[in-house]
């Protein structure tokens, strides 16, 4: 989102981003220390890579054909609450396939 959306759009969507972060922190708390470290690591990565995120934002802006709002209007909005509940009930090491593994 940092590289794909303009600042005004991110600001307008910030309540939804905040809700998503709260839900993700809750999930990480339920799953344990490894998940909490991974979540903190995602923030660390964003801070350490802010230059490349900025470069990517400029690149995306140079090839953009639609406005943020045209894209946002075409999205399907909603949270998959059943997934949050199911994932929240899991305990211990995940048995799911890892992306890229």
- What global shape is seen? globular
* Gyration radius, in Å: 16 Å
For the biggest sheet, the summary is:
none
How many helices?
Answer: 5
Estimate the strand proportion.
under 5%
Outline the low-pLDDT stretches. none
Structural class: mainly alpha
Which bin fits the share of residues in helices? 55-70%
User: How many strands in all?
Assistant: 0
Ends apart, CA distance between termini: 24 Å
H/E topology pattern? HHHHH
What's the overall average pLDDT, rounded? 84
Write a structural description.
With 101 residues, the protein is an all-alpha fold. The chain has a domain at 1-64. The chain has 5 helices and no strands. Helix 1 (7-31) packs antiparallel against helix 2 and helix 1 (7-31) runs parallel beside helix 5 (81-89). The protein is globular, with a radius of gyration of 16 Å. The two termini are 24 Å apart. 0% of the residues are buried. The mean pLDDT is 84.
List the helices and strands and how they pair.
Layout: H1 7-31, H2 33-48, H3 50-63, H4 68-73, H5 81-89
Helix pairs in contact: 1-2, 1-5
Quick tags:
5 helices, globular, mainly alpha, 101 residues
Structure summarized in a few sentences:
This protein has about 100 residues and is an all-alpha fold.
């Amino acid at each position: 989102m940092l590289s794909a959306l303009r600042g005004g759009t991110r600001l307008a969507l910030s309540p939804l981003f905040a809700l998503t972060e709260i839900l993700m922190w809750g999930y990480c708390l339920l799953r344990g220390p490894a998940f909490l470290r991974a979540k903190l690591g995602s923030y660390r990565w964003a801070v350490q890579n802010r230059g490349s995120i900025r470069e990517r934002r400029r690149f995306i802006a140079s090839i953009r054909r639609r406005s943020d709002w045209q894209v946002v209007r075409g999205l399907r909005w909603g949270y998959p609450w059943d997934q949050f509940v199911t994932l929240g009930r899991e305990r211990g090491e995940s048995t799911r396939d890892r992306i890229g593994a």
